[in-house]
Structures are given as structure tokens and as C-alpha cells.
Design a protein that fits this description.
The protein is mainly beta. The protein is built from 2 helices and 18 strands. It has one domain. The strands form 3 sheets. Strands 3, 4, 5, 7, 10, 13, 16, 17 and 18 form a 9-stranded mixed sheet that branches.
Length: 275
């Protein structure tokens, strides 16, 4: 993986620092061998590890990213790159809820790059993130889809903090930029910048009294109005959640759900994807 390709945002010009003395990197690449999808390249540095992949019920290759760290610490800099080869189907998840720990003066940063070839499928579904009190986190996700046959699902769940400890939106900031290109054309851009000291996160238009927010993006799956009606029915008949579904100008779909339990939102996302 070329280091220069990961410095476009300016995040990763310095390769030293952080809990592990250098930038933490992960690279995964898939390809077809005969009729079977395999990982043909796997590279990682501490704290990342990758569990032995296994086949799912629908022919997808399930990959779980492991971490030897208790969570994201001050000064951590992470770079992840996923290449999804032609004809392969991947489901990528993480080991446990992502704890973003308290920070004194600095922040933590992560840059994820995803490249998908034609006739590929990726369901990227990391575990929910929990920003601790005084944490500060910058996250960038860049996705490049070769064409409309490149199917991509992105699931992201962010909590308000450690509610059991009385922490609700006590973090310094949480910045997340997600951009998706198809055939070199930008089709989706979500620039989330939560700063509780500036924004009232509890009010209308934000979390509205809820504790968790799930964001679901579905590209290339040809979802239609009938599917959207099913999703709205699911949301309306599920207790203690609020949400909505909308279509992008490209025809792709996005769903947002507010709730109070991460596991409930995970199950809802799975149900919506399969609707």
C-alpha cells in the first residue's frame, strides 16, 4: 500500500507517535480463486489482527478485524485499506465495541480507504463507537466504486457516551467524513462534526433525547419505493426508535435511526438490509 495515497488529507504525514510508536495500518485484498472468494493479501501492524475468515450462508466471505488495544487512545493514528476484487463478496466486522478513550491535549485519527471492483459486494459493519468523556476523534472514510455492479453497504452506529457512568455527550468532538465515488463521480458525502460544547446534542435535529444514532448507506442494491415503504413500516412498528429512509440523486438509499440500545439498532440494520 502506497503511503502517499494515505496522506491526501494531511492526517498521516507523521508516521511516528501514538500508543504503538507509529501509525497502525491494515490492508486487506480479496480475489476469486476458482469459484471461491479468498483474501489474497493481508498486512497489518499493531494493534490490528485479522481472524481466519470463514464462509457465510449467502456465499460471502466473513472477515473480522481484531485489536490488541483496549480502544482508541490519544495520539493514535490508524490507516485501513480494503480492496474488494471483482466477483468477491465480503462482510467485514470488528471484534468489539470501539471505545474512544479520554484524551488530555491531543486527539486520535483514522483514515479508511475502500476500493471495489465490478461485480463485487462489501458489507462494512464495524461495532458501535463509544466516545468517552473528553475524547476527540477524526475519522475519514473514502470509498471508490468501479460501477453500478459494485455493491456497498456501510453501517455506522455512534453512542452519546458511557451512559452507565452518567456520560452523555461529554466528549470534546467527533468528526466523521464519509465520501463515496462511483465511476469517479461523487455520489455521497456526509460531513458529521459533533462538538457538544458548541451544539446542543439533545435537541431537535440532533439526538432528540435518544442515546444512539445508526447510519446505513446502501449503494448499488437497486432499492425502490416498495422497499422504502417496508423500511418505514419496520421503523414505525419498532418501539423506542425514530428513523427515516431517503434516496440519493444517484438512486442509492440511506437510512438514519435514533434509539437507546446499540444491539437493537444493529438488529434493525440487519433487518432493513434484508427487507
Amino acid at each position: 500500500m502506497a503511503a502517499a495515497s494515505l496522506t491526501a488529507t494531511g492526517f498521516y504525514e507523521n508516521r511516528s507517535g501514538g500508543s504503538f510508536g507509529r501509525r497502525s495500518e491494515l490492508y486487506l485484498s480479496s480475489c476469486m480463486r476458482g469459484e471461491k472468494a479468498v483474501l489474497d493479501e493481508v498486512h497489518f501492524t499493531a494493534p490490528f489482527k485479522v481472524m481466519e475468515p470463514f464462509d457465510g450462508e449467502k456465499g460471502e466471505l466473513k472477515v473480522m478485524i481484531l485489536s490488541a488495544s483496549p480502544g482508541i487512545m490519544e495520539g493514535d493514528v490508524q490507516a485501513q485499506h480494503f480492496h474488494v476484487g471483482r466477483g468477491t463478496k465480503l462482510e467485514v466486522s470488528s471484534q468489539a465495541f470501539e471505545k474512544i478513550h479520554k484524551m488530555k491535549d491531543g486527539c486520535a485519527r483514522r483514515h479508511i480507504r475502500i476500493c471495489q471492483e465490478a461485480d463485487s459486494f462489501l458489507y462494512y459493519m464495524p461495532q458501535p463507537a463509544i466516545p468517552f468523556k473528553n475524547s476527540a476523534f477524526d475519522n475519514i472514510v473514502e470509498v471508490k466504486l468501479q460501477n453500478k455492479t459494485s455493491q456497498f453497504i456501510f453501517q455506522d452506529i455512534l453512542s452519546c457516551g458511557r451512559t452507565a457512568y452518567g456520560e452523555r455527550f461529554d466528549y470534546q468532538y467527533y468528526h466523521s467524513l464519509v465520501q463515496v465515488w462511483r465511476e469517479d463521480r461523487l455520489i455521497y458525502r456526509d460531513n458529521t462534526r459533533y462538538a457538544p460544547d458548541i451544539l446542543c446534542m439533545e435537541e431537535t435535529g440532533m439526538y432528540e433525547g435518544y442515546t444512539h444514532l445508526a447510519s446505513l448507506l446502501l449503494c448499488g442494491l437497486q432499492k425502490d419505493n416498495e422497499w422504502a415503504d417496508k423500511v418505514r413500516t419496520i421503523l414505525e412498528t419498532t418501539k423506542d426508535v425514530e428513523g427515516g429512509v431517503s434516496f440519493l440523486a444517484s438512486g442509492d438509499a440511506t437510512v438514519r435511526i435514533l434509539g437507546r440500545q446499540a444491539q437493537q439498532l444493529q438488529e434493525l440494520c440487519k433487518l432493513i438490509v434484508g427487507a
